[in-house]
Specification:
mainly alpha, about 0% strand, globular
């Protein structure tokens, strides 16, 4: 029942996330106005605004203009629901940790989707959530002060160095802020695990495209997407990976 509750909660938050991303792009407030079709601007009724179910009922089309509804909407709702449910399963009814992870996963999903679609990472996705996360992290001792400090310095500093060397050609400012957020989430030394996974995963993804001369396809997925995926994996399995590696070399 706990897993089901958080899965449903995740679907609802996924719906809110879709609205927030669209309104961020359109320069509108997420707190004002009713949801409406982005194609014909028709205000949605409650039957058209039920996460996942409405998409199936409408068969992927707007009830008013009959134009296609982007697959982004049900996919994001499903993925956030899955992630929240997975966190509930992983932490086995430890509600504080589940809510912490839900908070983090919500913003990581925001970064992933928005960066993939628009190639932008906003402060509201990284910097603000990072500062808010510092408070419960210190209160509940999820990481020591030194662990967070080193994690932030390594995460942000790693990308800042690349930004300065390349004069902004390799890395954007959004990646620096995302590195800082990663440092708050993971601390030291797990930030290194996430960076390693991001670069290895990114390389494995683009290598086939480069081999077949598809350079444009290889560059379509921005690096923020790899960083968010690597952070998510490291949140749950980073400690086990570090212990396995230490045992392997000792």
């Amino acid at each position: 029942m706990i897993i089901l509750f958080f899965t449903i909660l995740g679907v609802l938050f996924g719906s809110f996330l879709n609205a927030w991303m669209w309104r961020t792009r359109a320069g509108k407030s997420v707190l004002r106005g009713r949801s409406h079709c982005p194609k014909c601007n028709n205000a949605l009724t409650w039957k058209e605004n039920i996460p996942l179910l409405s998409y199936l009922w409408l068969r992927g089309r707007c009830l008013n203009c009959q134009k296609r509804i982007s697959l982004q909407y049900p996919v994001v709702e499903f993925v956030v629901g899955f992630l929240f449910g997975f966190s509930a399963w992983f932490h086995d009814a430890q509600f504080l940790l589940i809510f912490r992870d839900a908070y983090i996963l919500f913003f990581l999903t925001f970064v992933f989707v928005y960066d993939v679609i628009y190639q932008e990472i906003w402060d509201r996705m990284t910097t603000y959530p990072a500062f808010l996360l510092l408070i419960p992290t210190a209160m509940f001792g999820w990481h020591s002060g030194m662990s967070v400090t080193v994690g932030v310095v390594v995460g942000a500093g790693f990308f800042l160095l690349q930004y300065l060397i390349s004069k902004g050609k390799w890395i954007g400012g959004g990646d620096i802020r995302l590195g800082m957020f990663m440092g708050v989430i993971l601390g030291w030394p797990l930030i290194l695990v996430a960076l390693f996974f991001a670069y290895v995963g990114g390389t494995l993804f683009v290598l086939p495209f480069l081999m077949f001369g598809k350079k444009k396809m290889a560059s379509r997925v921005p690096f923020g997407a790899y960083l968010t995926l690597a952070t998510t994996v490291t949140m749950y399995y980073g400690t086990d990976i570090v212990q396995w590696y230490v045992g392997l070399i000792s």
